[in-house]
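This section describes the prediction task in plain terms. A model, or a person checking by hand, is given the sequence of a single protein chain and must write out its three-dimensional structure as a string of tokens. No templates, partner chains or ligands are provided. The sample shown here is typical of the held-out split.
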Amino acid sequence: MPRLLLATNNPGKVRELRRLLDGCGFELVTPADFGLAVEPVESGSTYAENAVLKARAFATAAGCLALADDSGLEVDALGGAPGVQSARFGGPGLDDAGRVGLLLKKLGGVPRKRRTARFRAVVALACSDGGVRLFEGVQEGHIAAAPRGDSGFGYDPVFVGRGGQTNGEIAEAAKDAVSHRGQAVRAAATFLRSLR
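The expected answer:
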């Protein structure tokens, strides 16, 4: 079975990608399986640019097909921020909880109807020869007044989807069915199955 490298060092993303890519026809491997210590600099100005940077770096280092994503939260009341900077929002000293706290502080006093937001993900599949395919997914919603739920990671506890619960309150399978990353990775999985 050919290998597909999950081009991330984020354990939460690895778990999610394994679920979403189950049955894609490829053996799913991680950078640790290859002994890789690749940390590409996400210098792109778009999700697509960053996803391609990561996928190509890992594909070249491992010599096999690699899948990377870049995603972010776009809050309308903040002019689309944090956007492509979502994982670095507030600087390197903040963890997920710190970034969520900063987001809620910036939205202090903003009424519910103006807290509209979306999660956006772009997935890149890169071959070791540099060829790339892109897939995108978007989940619409709004930002809650306070975190709710202990599932997921990142901004999940404050992102309320169409069902009225945060991504941190719903079960993994339910989240996978509607999330931005779920949409993009499912499209990539369909493409991967067509290669087999």
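For orientation: The helical segments are 11-21, 31-34, 47-62, 96-106, 172-178, 180-195.
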